Amino acid sequence: MPVGLEDSRDRALLDDLTEGEETGKNACPTVMSRKAKAYYERHLPHWQPRGKVLFITWRLAGSLPAAFWRECTEKSAGKRFVAFDRALDSGCIGPMWMKDAAVAKLVSDALRYGETERGLYRMLASVVMSNHVHLLIETIEPLQKITRFLKGYTARCANLVLGRTGRVFWQDESFDHWVRSSSEENRIIQYIENNPVTAGLVDKPEDWAWSSAARRVTIEQNWMS
Length: 225
Hints:
Helices cover about 40% and strands about 10% of the residues. The chain has about 220 residues and is α+β, with helices and mostly antiparallel strands. A 4-stranded antiparallel beta sheet has the order 2-3-1-4, sandwiched between helices.
């Protein structure tokens, strides 16, 4: 179910993800060492440099049709990602556990905890949607350690809140993209924080409670008061 790319932010992101900078098995530069090219054999690309800025997305289990990737006709990583993201925004299938404010809050709090208490990364932008999460970070620890903590901890806590202990919460695979420039970083921050606006949920990024945009406005207001 590819989605039209009418939004200029989508096109800007695609420019970055499709200029020979994709992640994953077939796109990694051959000059890098094998140790630097850790990736998973999944539909989505996985590039895991340490100490770099990474754009990461993961979703709830069952939040896309099983046939989504077979039916997706987009060829480039960037276009496949935007089709994937817009399909999630539509919420046409599967659970939307983060519509529950308690679950959305614990996921959002865990993102901050991974930065401030665990020291796994420096968080640059984030948004918790009803069925997926976008996160932009400067890594301190390896990506595998970061995602294992975030997905494992939030799955256990969310399942306790929802009364479904022991059941699968997150889909196994995640999307990750190595951000190569400050201009690309700024565009991805805008993309992340505007996701609730693009999805038609709020008028302004800061109106979405579970985002870095809302958190930044709160900090500014507290500083001025």
